[in-house]
Amino acid sequence: MVNPRLVHLKKRGEFLRVASARRKFVTPSLILQARPHDESDAEDTAPIRVGFTVSRRVGNAVVRNRVRRRLRAAAEEIMPGFADANSDFVIIGRRSALGQEYTGLTGHLKSALAKYEKENNKQKPIAE
To answer: How far apart are CA 10 and CA 15, in angstroms?
Structure first.
């Protein structure tokens, strides 16, 4: 079975809504912000919604876009199997994501998702 594609957050208001939930999980190469859907937003077949951002402090446009592409690839691989579909996520790239090996990057994303699941007491099994 092919993994479903992620739905990307694009509007500033969507990013701010996730940030206002104040659930942040920090790893060496990324910061994961998460917000569970309200009962009015929740559906049984809700897609995983995720947004990506990289600050100017990481580097120039070429570097920021490279970090964003690496994070997007890691998220498309990891999130369909490990993320809660009834949540919105924002992944903030950090400077160390550029030099990080891809397996390390996916490991950091898995650990951030595990912290989120643990906080929500959903304890999904995460196999490595």
So the answer is: 8
